[in-house]
Design a protein that fits this description.
Blueprint lengths: L2 H9 L47 E2 H14 L18 H6 L9 H13 L1 H7 L10 H10 L3 E2 L7 E6 L2 E12 L2 E9 L2 E8 L12 E5 L7 E2 L5 H13 L28 H12 L15 H16 L12 H9 L3
Parallel strand pairs: 1-8
Antiparallel strand pairs: 2-7, 3-4, 3-7, 4-5, 5-6
Helix pairs in contact: 2-4, 4-5
């Protein structure tokens, strides 16, 4: 019996139910970028960089956004160096994009550029964020690039670059990784010198250009890297059918190729999932707080926080888990076999 079949039997889900840091690098420093071939050294800083043969046009927009979100979440907790340096420009791609080293500059916008490059490669990332032929390490200039191309919006979508007012101008940025009505979850670099997960009531923070308020959302040109959802609908259905026949779940980690649950997990239509409900019930057995709605089958912020708390507890006691909010095969084994 495969692990996943055993897990489905044990958990009973065999079927699916239907502050901030200023980032003001001067315009003079943001000079004309040259050359648009993917550099070999980009892989030093971008571990998930895809090759030119694996062009992301094979992806749907949903999968492209998920790829970006997964990378952003994997970086949460990183802290800049004692000298203010950051790892996200430490691969010379910044020299190619900005024509200056961004290793020691305020790095929130640098982090965002690194995220898109990590997910989609240098050429596609700079095209989809409107940084060809000019590259920017200043938030205000990056926002202007979206505005010039009609891609600056007042309402967020997952994968958008979010911009904030500070010091009377746009001086901070991050990436939207989840949207729940009026609430958004973001990942931001150089937030208290770290990569942090943040949460906002976005409508309340778009009233004026007061420090900390949201200026708007830059929307990448997803057509550069992905096909429209409608053209891939048949393929999606085929994938789901194959998944059922092979007794696998419908989401697999893009790097480790393991089945997993995490904050973005869902069936694509906002419906709760029995896999998530099973995990939530196990957390409740360990007496972790998963929020007022209990085991509702939705992997929201409360479930994510409880998962991280459980992972830290188990890891501190020698368990084979990572504290990342991602529920993979090792987590399932530990939570079932280790007494709470």
């Amino acid at each position: 019996m495969t692990f996943l079949k055993w897990l489905a039997t044990v958990c009973g889900f065999g079927q699916t139910d239907t502050a901030k840091s200023s980032d003001a690098v001067s315009a003079e420093e943001s000079t004309e970028a040259v050359g648009r071939t993917t550099p070999e050294y980009v892989q030093n800083v971008v571990q998930t960089h895809i090759s030119s043969e694996e062009r992301s046009t094979m992806m749907t927009v949903t999968k492209a956004k998920q790829k970006l979100v997964d990378w952003c979440k994997s970086q949460i907790g990183y802290h800049e160096g004692y000298d203010g340096s950051n790892k996200y420009a430490d691969g010379n791609w910044d020299m190619k994009l900005y024509l200056f080293s961004a290793v020691n500059v305020p790095w929130c916008d640098v982090f965002v550029d690194a995220a898109y490059i990590a997910a989609f490669g240098f050429e596609d990332a700079t095209a989809m964020t409107y940084q060809q032929p000019r590259g920017y390490a200043a938030c205000s200039l990056s926002a202007d690039a979206y505005k010039r191309n009609g891609a600056f919006y007042r309402e967020p979508e997952v994968g958008d670059q979010i911009f904030f007012f500070y010091g009377g101008a746009i001086n901070h940025t991050g990436i939207v990784v989840e949207v729940h009505g009026d609430t958004i979850v973001c990942v931001e670099g150089n937030y208290s010198d770290m990569v942090c997960r943040t949460q906002y009531k976005w409508r309340e923070k778009m009233q004026s250009n007061v420090d900390g308020n949201i200026a708007g959302f830059g929307r990448p040109n997803w057509s550069v890297v992905a096909e429209p959802e409608s053209t891939a609908s048949d393929d999606i259905n085929d994938d789901i059918d194959d998944t059922i026949e092979s007794e696998e779940f419908d989401i697999v980690h893009p790097t480790f190729r393991r089945t997993y649950l995490h904050l973005e997990y869902g069936d694509g239509n906002g419906n709760p999932l029995p896999q998530v409900k099973a995990w939530q019930n196990l957390l409740l057995c360990w007496e972790y707080d998963i929020g007022q709605y209990g085991a509702d089958g939705e992997f929201g912020l409360d479930t994510d926080n409880a998962t991280r708390q459980w992972q830290k507890y188990v890891k501190d006691r020698g368990g084979d888990v990572e504290v990342n909010g991602v529920v993979d095969e090792d987590d399932w084994i530990e939570i079932i076999n280790v007494p709470g």
